[in-house]
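Q: How do we represent a protein-ligand complex in a form that can be generated token by token?
A: Start from the inputs.
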Amino acid sequence: MLIVQKYGGTSMGSIERIKNVARRVAAAKDAGDDVVVVVSAMSGETDRLIRLANGISSSPDDRELDMLVSTGERVSIALLAMALIDMGYKARSFTGRQVGIITDSAHTKARIEKITAERIKEALEEGTIPIVAGFQGIDEKSDVTTLGRGGSDTTAVALAAALKADMCDIYTDVDGVYTSDPNIVPNARKLNKISYEEMLEMASLGAKVLHSRSVEFAAKYNVPLRVLSSFTNNSGTLVTKEDKDMEQEAVSGVTYDKNASKISLIGVPDKPGIAGRIFGAISDANIIVDMIIQNISQGELTDISFTVPKGDAKKAVDIMKKMTKEIGAADVLLNPDIAKVSIVGVGMRSHSGVAAKMFATLAKEGINIMMISTSEIKISCVIDAKYTELAVRALHDAFELGEKVKV
Ligand code: ADP
Ligand code: ASP
Ligand code: MG
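Then emit the structure tokens for the protein with aspartic acid bound:
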């Protein structure tokens, strides 16, 4: 079997832990499998590098930021390769460039376009274990790019697809995908299996256990994907095609995302073409807008609010300040401390009353809803960030997702 194994930041967090990873990789090799390893930077390292950049500049250049943060993974690949070589195995580290991970040029959020993987195939043929840097690639000019925070998962799944691997195992610090983040919901329940569709929705809505692009790749190329702990031998969670024995609950998970800010334009002239101009300017700056609401107009004027990733908020406010003059709006307000809490479930399609129950649950906790958005299999509410944990736990209880307590 050909297995791609990915180890995240916590799993690679110290010398001891890197040695632990080396032992796991070696065990898979000893069992007769071909292994390709993808690793993240040691935990905290990417944050540290970003802090350095922010110390130099209030808006660091994106190309230079990628050059900087990609170094975290370089450290990890070399250390893991050394550990395996010391144990008597043939191992070799490779950067994204060396294995031909070609992306577009959208620095800090690049998308993989092609993988050649020649050096990986050569290494496998001679029995060497390739250790690949996650999170990074190069664009057509050979400039270093990165895939967005958490992007090493995507490197692993994309490589598994390109190499037609039999399995892609994502080793992390929890032993699978849970009904909600087990670090904030103590009675969250581990799922044995989850469909690509539900997992994609959960990942896109903030469940950072998998990078959402990695789930898109897995679904598109049918890569069998598992989420496992690098610290235990538990069975983990299989992410796969929807099948009959999967749960069809109305709600199967609760997620949260604190990485968003809300921008409001006040006193906007309510006439055709204005929204097009506002969001045209935002998209020209490569900023992705998530939720949008427009109030009922008061006379000739209305208010428009929308959310953007936190890192893009400053840029978006600057653009909107220019825009207020052009379109004759009164003001721009920024609320950086919001969170989006969401409930996800494919069974929602055939159950009614789910939204009402969600809103009532938040109301009972005294939590105000600022924005709402729905799709076929999810409902999201924007709330004040300080209530995030309370909201997630209350929703998890209300939809009875927790471990059933035996009496
Ligand atoms: P890694 O460094 O291994 O990539 P991450 O920190 O990116 O690890 O992802 C693992 C974390 O995801 C867990 O520690 C957990 O707090 C969080 N998480 C959020 N939602 C979920 C969920 N539904 N199931 C499991 N973990 C989750
Ligand atoms: N090191 C990168 C990050 O911290 C990528 C990853 O861990 O997946 O976001
Ligand atoms: Mg991660």
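The mean pLDDT is 94. Residues 349 and 375 are 9 Å apart (CA to CA).
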